Backbone:
């Protein structure tokens, strides 16, 4: 049973536009959420996180929104750049940042020039 | 180096053999995680070490899998009697607990 779901395996966006990557979770005990980016043949790199006490966190072009009632979070990239093309993983943990992470299957983002 | 390192980067083994995968976390990071990514799948949690606490082994797929972390630093993941379905990229991550984990480059395991 998948606790963290990324229902779109791929997303294609034009350079300069907004990329919206979605993630749903089923376990209401999750209280910490993260997004990772992964290039081919490299390990995932941490992008941005959000605690369940917040509903939004921004870092430059990246913003994560958390809707606890819907058990949904999303990552917005504005404006999208070709270098953003990668696989994006959503992850969730219970026990704050000290908990083990449960990952979604990832969404492959392609940003076209 | 300043990042998480893993060795070997690639491992090809025959079905039934044992393999050991090594992870050197970032110095001072108390949390260490092992994940694997099979072809076409997301990252699957295997095991989590936090300081001196008993590890969270809830993700280990069978008793053929074990891991240890010596001295709160280096970790080895051991797979006994490997099977073809064990073929995957095995990723290690470490964390200080104040931010997201930092991943190593992974070990690609191929079981023939």
Residues:
């Amino acid at each position: 049973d998948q606790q963290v779901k990324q229902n779109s395996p791929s997303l294609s966006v034009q350079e300069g536009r907004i990329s919206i990557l979605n993630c749903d979770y089923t376990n209401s005990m999750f209280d910490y959420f993260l997004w990772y980016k992964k290039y081919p043949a490299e390990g995932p790199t941490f992008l941005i996180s959000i605690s369940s006490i917040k509903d939004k966190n921004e870092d430059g072009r990246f913003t994560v929104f958390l809707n606890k009632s819907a058990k949904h979070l999303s990552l917005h990239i504005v404006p999208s750049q070709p270098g953003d093309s990668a696989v994006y993983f959503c992850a969730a943990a219970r026990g704050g940042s000290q908990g083990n992470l449960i990952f979604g299957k990832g969404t492959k983002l392609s940003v076209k020039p | 180096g300043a990042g998480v390192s893993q060795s070997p980067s690639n491992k090809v083994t025959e079905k039934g053999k044992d393999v050991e995968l090594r992870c050197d976390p970032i110095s001072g990071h108390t949390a260490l995680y092992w994940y694997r990514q099979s072809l076409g799948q997301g990252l699957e949690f295997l095991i989590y070490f936090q300081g001196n606490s008993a590890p969270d082994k809830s993700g280990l797929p069978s008793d053929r899998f074990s891991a240890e972390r010596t001295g709160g630093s280096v970790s080895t993941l051991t797979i006994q009697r490997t099977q073809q379905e064990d073929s995957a990229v095995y990723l290690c991550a470490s964390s200080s607990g104040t931010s997201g984990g930092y991943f190593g480059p992974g070990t690609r395991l191929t079981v023939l």
In short: The first strand of chain B starts at residue 5 and ends at 7. The interface with chain A takes residues 4, 31, 33, 35, 41-45, 48, 50, 56, 58-59, 91, 93, 95, 97-106 of chain B (CB under 8 Å). The two ends of chain B are 33 Å apart (CA to CA). Residues 20 and 78 of chain B are 5 Å apart (CA to CA).
